[in-house]
């Protein structure tokens, strides 16, 4: 039976929860490396600290996809229970995260945060395929991207904005600035509120054959279903997986290293090493007094450290704001596609190819950028981001069994998290140092990876996936 076409605001309402999800991702992506550096992490250790994010996705999303495929409640629906569980956990973690007193606690909370976001996110992807007919799928994923772009831009600018409103972005050594704490608290409320909005405004449709669904649910087992789904993985999904591999390697590189790379190379204000200004014990560790405050060499050393740290925090705010530009340009990309796809079909393959290559050149341009021109890099990257969040899912949803949409979306996530795991376990550090020791070379590596992803679109030849 052909599904009913939905109006713009119906699609908007069912996708609105992505505003909160993206608040979580943008705050995590834009400011976790800053938190790690503040708590004492070395730059080359940061990708390894980020490994929590892809590992939790690898474990959580197939399980959540499977569970949501096999859930139905006349009162609570199919995907909405997972939206709510993820929202409660993620909002609580966002609130707690910037209060982390030690590096290992922040790294542990990142595991919890990313797991919670993943619980909410993948059912949202499946909901689009649940409710929309094939002719509206591109439009549905593009509207999700529009909302994601809004969330990315606002959340990335939050620390800068609250600082301008009078909240300090300065703090003692090893302490997260108040502006970041306030931004994460706002993100927690937005995450929870936007998910509730979708839950209360969107009604889920029951399975087309409810009796058959309930019967199959009784016989369903996760491991056998997982193995069968892997065997049934369509060729389009495998080809898209290669594209996703290089795409997400690039963006993981940006999230983990853009703050140290750009504060150092573009703004000429790297994070100062407190060990150069403080008294050290016999093991080379910083001495602290009874109040846990750093004992500096003298007053001049303390003043110099605080001055350099303030410049770094100001620059980190500006990097966060510049990063937010990619959310703004992805929003513009999605808005144009939204109007276009309301009445016309598009060639998903070539849109995705061109968008990824543009983003690749955006990353490479960072090497030549100045503080006033850095935004042009992120404008180009935003076109890639907008396409990554919509085109692969639109192509995939046209190629898989609708009864296993949640499981397949979860498995598709493997092609997102595996490159991030490789990157976190040393892939970034090894590869960018082949170009040069400076951290900005990690952004050049990201650009090369994204251009390769774009060229891999030549592999897609299934007409059903390409046109939509």
Report what the structure shows.
The structure is a single chain. The protein starts with 7 loop residues before the first helix and ends with a helix. The protein has one domain: Up-down Bundle (Growth Hormone, Chain: A), CATH 1.20.1250. Helix content is 71%, strand content 0%. The chain has 468 residues and is an all-alpha fold. Helix 2 runs antiparallel to helix 6 and helix 2 crosses helix 7. The mean pLDDT is 84. It is a multi-pass membrane protein.
Short description:
Keywords: Membrane, Transmembrane, Transmembrane helix, Transport. With 468 residues, the chain is mainly alpha-helical. It has helices at 8-15, 17-38, 46-49, 52-69, 80-96, 103-131, 137-164, 178-201, 210-219, 222-231, 235-265, 299-341, 348-365, 374-388, 391-397, 405-412, 414-435, 441-455, 463-466.
Uncertain segments are none
Following the backbone from N to C, one meets helices and strands in this order, namely HHHHHHHHHHHHHHHHHHH
Indicate the CATH architecture.
Up-down Bundle
Percentage of β-strand residues: under 5%
CATH C-level name: Mainly Alpha
Portion of residues within helices: over 70%
Question: What spatial form do the alpha-carbon principal axes imply?
Answer: globular
- The overall pLDDT average reads 84
Query: How many β-strand stretches?
Result: 0
**End-to-end C-alpha gap:** 19 Å
What structural class do helix, strand and pairing data support? mainly alpha
Q: State the major sheet.
A: none
**CATH fourth-tier homologous superfamily:** MFS general substrate transporter like domains
The third-level CATH topology is Growth Hormone, Chain: A
């Amino acid at each position: 039976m052909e599904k009913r076409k939905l109006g713009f605001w119906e699609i908007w309402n069912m996708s609105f929860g992505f505003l909160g999800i993206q608040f979580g991702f943008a705050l995590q992506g834009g400011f976790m490396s800053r938190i790690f550096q503040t708590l004492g992490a070395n730059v080359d250790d940061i990708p390894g600290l980020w490994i929590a994010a892809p590992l939790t996705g690898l474990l959580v999303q197939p399980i959540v996809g499977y569970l949501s495929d096999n859930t139905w409640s006349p009162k609570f629906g199919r995907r909405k229970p997972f939206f709510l569980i993820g929202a409660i956990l993620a909002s609580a973690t966002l609130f707690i995260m910037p209060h982390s007193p030690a590096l290992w606690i922040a790294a542990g909370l990142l595991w919890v945060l990313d797991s919670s976001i993943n619980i909410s996110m993948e059912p949202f992807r499946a909901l689009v395929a649940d409710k929309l007919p094939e002719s509206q799928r591109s439009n549905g994923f593009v509207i999700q991207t529009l909302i994601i772009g809004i969330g990315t831009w606002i959340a990335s600018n939050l620390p800068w904005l609250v600082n301008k409103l009078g909240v300090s972005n300065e703090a003692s050594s090893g302490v997260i600035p108040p502006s970041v704490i306030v931004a994460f608290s706002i993100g927690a409320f937005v995450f929870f509120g936007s998910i509730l909005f979708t839950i209360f405004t969107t009604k889920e449709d029951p399975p087309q054959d409810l009796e058959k669904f309930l019967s199959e649910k009784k016989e369903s087992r996760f491991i056998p279903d997982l193995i069968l789904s892997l065997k049934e993985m369509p060729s389009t999904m495998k080809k898209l997986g290669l594209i996703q591999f290089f795409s997400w390697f690039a963006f993981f590189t940006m999230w983990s290293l853009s703050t140290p790379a750009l504060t150092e190379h573009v703004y000429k204000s790297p994070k100062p090493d407190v060990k150069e200004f403080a008294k050290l014990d016999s093991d080379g560790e910083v001495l602290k007094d009874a109040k846990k405050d750093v004992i500096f060499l003298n007053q001049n050393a303390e003043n110099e450290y605080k001055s350099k740290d303030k410049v770094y925090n100001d620059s980190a705010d500006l990097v966060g704001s510049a990063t937010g530009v990619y959310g703004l340009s992805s929003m513009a990309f999605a808005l144009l596609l939204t109007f276009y796809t309301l009445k016309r079909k598009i060639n998903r393959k070539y849109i995705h190819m061109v968008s990824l290559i543009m983003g690749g050149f955006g990353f490479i341009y960072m090497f030549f950028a100045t503080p006033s021109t850095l935004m042009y890099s992120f404008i180009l990257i935003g076109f890639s981001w907008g396409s990554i969040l919509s085109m692969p899912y639109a192509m995939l949803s046209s190629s898989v069994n609708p009864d296993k949409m949640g499981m397949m979306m979860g498995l598709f996530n493997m092609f997102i998290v595996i490159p991030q795991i490789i990157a976190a376990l040393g892939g970034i550090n090894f590869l960018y140092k082949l170009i040069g020791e400076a951290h900005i070379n990690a952004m050049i590596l990201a650009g090369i990876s994204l251009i390769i992803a774009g060229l891999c679109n030549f592999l897609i030849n299934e007409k059903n996936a390409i046109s939509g």
